Amino acid sequence: GESVGLHLPTLSVQEGDNSIINCAYSNSASDYFIWYKQESGKGPQFIIDIRSNMDKRQGQRVTVLLNKTVKHLSLQIAATQPGDSAVYFCAEPANPSGSARQLTFGSGTQLTVLP
Amino acid sequence: DTGVSQDPRHKITKRGQNVTFRCDPISEHNRLYWYRQTLGQGPEFLTYFQNEAQLEKSRLLSDRFSAERPKGSFSTLEIQRTEQGDSAMYLCASSGSLGNGYTFGSGTRLTVV
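YS: structure for the whole thing
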């Protein structure tokens, strides 16, 4: 079936370096994608989304890149800070043609920022 | 209204007991979702309300699970005859009619012993 997956379950980066978190998706009909950040003991927090008619979108210190040719999504975090340590999920609509907008989440990447 | 509130934050119950969780969404949001998350996994969709109508239910939602949103505001999720496999974080999220992202609550962590 269709699925959203992540290439790496864990990622460690030095404070101040840039982080890149990757995600592969398989539903070519998905019309948007979302990145969430989840800190320990908290619910997922919306970071940034991107529509399928875009290939790049920038936020504050974050950039999402979408490559529809290879069905790949990435989240880039600039100048990674200790507060960025969390699990990051990509998500896509479970039923792109539906109105409910329920999401299918990947299993997540644990980002650890080293001092 | 600062976000989505869930109560309780933690619940420990004995197998076979019933439990009920409450979610208060952002007041202007008409869409409400329940998700379940087990350790090391992403959230999995359980059910969706638009206003007071429950419009979608996942196959994960067995007949021991029931959710309500009687006045289109807060929602409750009840699990009857709990089993150890029900142990998980239960997340509630809400969204408005526009935009794609949800706002999640902090979840209710259920432990069935």
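YS: worth flagging: The two ends of chain B are 35 Å apart (CA to CA).
IM: good catch. Also Residues 34 and 81 of chain B are 19 Å apart (CA to CA).
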